[in-house]
């Protein structure tokens, strides 16, 4: 955490899948709007669900190298 800095000034971190049983919290580039239907969401809470355990265990490859985990989250839409 970076206490004392407002959320919009903190580095963006993600749960990144590197391979079987290799998951890391890393700083990543800021997200950007690419399509007219995109929205930027400042995530306030996230979780790893049971379906994330399959790639973690090497039983199903759905993320690929450097894939972002944590598809279940909630937050505030800050741009669209
Ligand atoms: Zn899920």
How would you characterize this protein structure?
Helices cover 6% and strands 40% of the residues. It has a three-stranded antiparallel β-sheet with strand order 2-1-4, with no helix packed on it. Strands 3-5 form a two-stranded antiparallel ribbon. It has one domain (7-79). The chain is built from one helix and five strands. It is globular. The chain has 80 residues and is mostly beta strands. It has one helix at 53-57; strands at 13-19, 22-27, 40-47, 67-69, 72-79. A hairpin with a 2-residue loop joins strand 1 and strand 2. Residues 49, 51, 71-72 line the site of zinc ion.
Provide key terms for this protein.
5 strands, binds zinc ion, mainly beta, single chain, 1 helix
Chain-wise SSE layout:
Elements: E1 13-19, E2 22-27, E3 40-47, H1 53-57, E4 67-69, E5 72-79
Bound molecules: zinc ion (ZN).
Zinc ion binds at residues 49, 51, 71-72.
Q: Which strand order do you get reading across the main beta sheet?
A: 2-1-4
In total, the number of domains comes to: 1
Task: Describe the largest sheet.
Answer: 3 strands, antiparallel
Which segments are poorly predicted (pLDDT under 50) over 5 or more consecutive residues? none
Figure out the total of helices: 1
Structural class: mainly beta
